[in-house]
Amino acid sequence: MPYTILIVDDDPLILKSLKRSMRKEKFNILCANSAKEALEILENKQIDLIITDHDMPGTRGVDLLIEVKKLYPETIRFMLTGKATLEVALDAINKGAITRFFTKPCNSIELAVAIRQALQQKDLLEKSKLLLNATRRQSYLLEKLEKHLPGITCVKRDNTGAILLDEENDEDIEKFLTELGGELVRVEKQMQAFEEKAFWGVKK
Q1: 48 phi/psi in degrees, rounded to 5
Q2: CA distance 167 to 142
Q3: For the whole model, what pTM was predicted?
Q4: pLDDT per residue rounded down to tens, the chain (204 residues)
Q5: How many CA atoms are closer than 13 Å to the CA of 76, on its beta-carbon side?
Q6: Alpha carbon distance 53, 71 (integer Å)
Q7: Residue 66: other Cβ atoms inside 10 A
Q8: Per-domain boundaries in the chain
Q9: Distance CA 5, CA 2 (A)
Q10: Exposure of 200 in the CB half-sphere (CA atoms within 13 A)
Q11: Which residues fall within 8 angstroms of residue 186, CB to CB, at 6 or more apart?
Q12: What gap in Å lies between CA 87 and CA 52, rounded to an integer?
């Protein structure tokens, strides 16, 4: 599934130019000519990255991105700005509202590379969070199992490698593992989801 990028600018020629410059990239490109229209699109579609001009009638680009950060923190935020508004862009970066900014006219190749890098970092972060959650869940289950049946996590094996269990604990173990069944299934699904993401990499 391709990444979706939203370009915001009140100048239709710039929108057309930016969209054309990224035609070779496997992105789903959406366009908006105002902050209001951009927020309407964000409300109805999952946007991976937004690129907005700063100097627009009504809501400025920096204010749009501050709102995007608040409502859709996972969306990557780029801003285009003229040299006269460079100070505004730097201030926005310091506030965490902008990931990157580019001065007009921007180099299309540089912009495309920055977009790819930002999306790859986003994808890696999502994978890391998924793996961390699964690992924490596994640790929690092992601690719970050890608390209920001390020593159970210290696995004993015979000379064939088979796991050995104390006979007097068999009934308790079976009962407890049944109770944990749902939890183990959830962990397994989380791990499978991570492995699938790791195999496929970034969105195609």
Answers
A1: -80, -35
A2: 21
A3: 0.64
A4: 789 999 999 999 989 988 888 888 888 999 999 999 999 999 999 999 999 998 888 998 889 999 999 999 999 999 888 766 677 777 777 777 788 888 888 888 888 889 989 988 878 777 777 777 767 776 776 676 666 656 555 556 667 766 555 554 556 556 656 655 665 566 566 666 655 655 444 454
A5: 23
A6: 19
A7: 18
A8: 3-106, 125-200
A9: 9
A10: 12
A11: 137
A12: 16
Q: Tokens 């109805």 map to which residue? A: 44
Q: Which amino acid is at 149?
A: L
Please state the separation of Cα 106 from the chain's center in Å: 26
Distance CA(75)–CA(129), nearest Å, equals 16
Q: Tokens 């199992």 map to which residue?
A: 145
The answer to whether residues 48 and 3 touch, using CB atoms and an 8 Å cutoff, is yes
In the numeric block, the tokens 């370009």 are attached to 7
Of 3.20.20.370, 3.40.50.2300, 3.40.50.620, 3.40.50.980, which CATH number belongs to 3-106?
A: 3.40.50.2300
Longest dimension (CA), the chain: 79
Taking the C-alpha atoms of residue 65 and residue 101, their distance in angstroms, rounded to an integer, is 11
